[in-house]
């Protein structure tokens, strides 16, 4: 499902305000109470917002992944810049694991310029993007489909990944922190990403500035497991030192 124009306006208002009353939303959009109720019900079903006591807010939880519909519409400029920088590390005739993140999804159209590339991804959205690239061979593992994130996850997914050995793994994360490393809201996501890390030579983390200093429920890996961190803003000196110590190359898009 996708958001209609009115729902996109609602999303932008809630993203800015964090939490807002339904009455305020109604006044800002000049729409009826019943129309707003239908839109909010639809957005709640898609896992985009949380509604309580006449207020609406975006879902933010250390143990729950945000909807793919939220992620593809946030930090768009930053994700595009990060993707362009990432593309400079890629080459023809190579193979890549790509996670289900929206950030990694911005890289995929740039593979059109690279002949004979193979991608294994557990993201339904990302696999669909790749169907438009005739130069790319795409593998989609089996497993359980998680509708909220359009991800394929589970033990069957992990076992399928073991069939491959890729040149690189391109991925994002829920949060990155000095205390806990790279974390995800979902254990299932973390387990799939760990397996992709284990079966690839080079590990490329794509992370916009909003994900720094955030800790989610499940650990994916440490800084030492990452070869490149690509972000859109220079992080604090503490992160720069931590990356140097772990042998991780920091690239600013």
Automatic annotation (TrEMBL):
The molecular function terms in GO held by this entry are: DNA binding
Arranged from A to Z, the UniProt key words for this protein are: DNA-binding, Transcription, Transcription regulation
**Superkingdom of the source species:** Bacteria
Q: Which organism is it from?
A: Paracholeplasma vituli
- The residue ranges of the HTH deoR-type domain are 3-58
Name-wise, this protein is DeoR/GlpR family DNA-binding transcription regulator
């Amino acid at each position: 499902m996708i958001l209609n124009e009115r729902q996109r306006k609602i999303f932008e208002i809630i993203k800015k305000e964090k939490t807002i009353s339904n009455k305020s939303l109604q006044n800002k959009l000049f729409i009826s109470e019943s129309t707003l109720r239908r839109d909010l019900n639809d957005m709640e079903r898609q896992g985009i917002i949380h509604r309580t006591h006449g207020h609406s807010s975006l879902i933010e939880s250390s143990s729950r992944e945000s909807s793919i519909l939220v992620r593809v519409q946030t930090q768009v400029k930053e994700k595009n810049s990060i993707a362009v920088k990432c593309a400079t590390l890629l080459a023809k005739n190579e193979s890549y694991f790509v996670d289900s993140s929206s950030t990694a999804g911005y890289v995929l159209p740039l593979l059109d310029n690279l002949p004979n590339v193979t991608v294994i991804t557990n993201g339904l959205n990302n696999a669909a993007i790749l169907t438009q690239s005739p130069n790319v061979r795409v593998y989609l593992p089996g497993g359980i489909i998680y509708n909220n994130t359009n991800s394929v996850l589970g033990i069957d997914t992990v076992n399928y990944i073991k069939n491959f050995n890729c040149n690189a793994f391109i991925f994002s994360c829920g949060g990155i922190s000095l205390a806990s490393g790279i974390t995800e809201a979902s254990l299932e996501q973390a387990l799939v990403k760990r397996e992709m890390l284990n079966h690839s030579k080079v590990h490329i983390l794509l992370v916009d500035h909003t994900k720094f200093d955030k800790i989610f429920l499940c650990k994916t890996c440490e800084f030492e497991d990452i070869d490149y961190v690509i972000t859109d803003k220079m992080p604090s000196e503490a992160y720069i030192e931590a990356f140097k110590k772990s042998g991780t190359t920091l690239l600013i898009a």
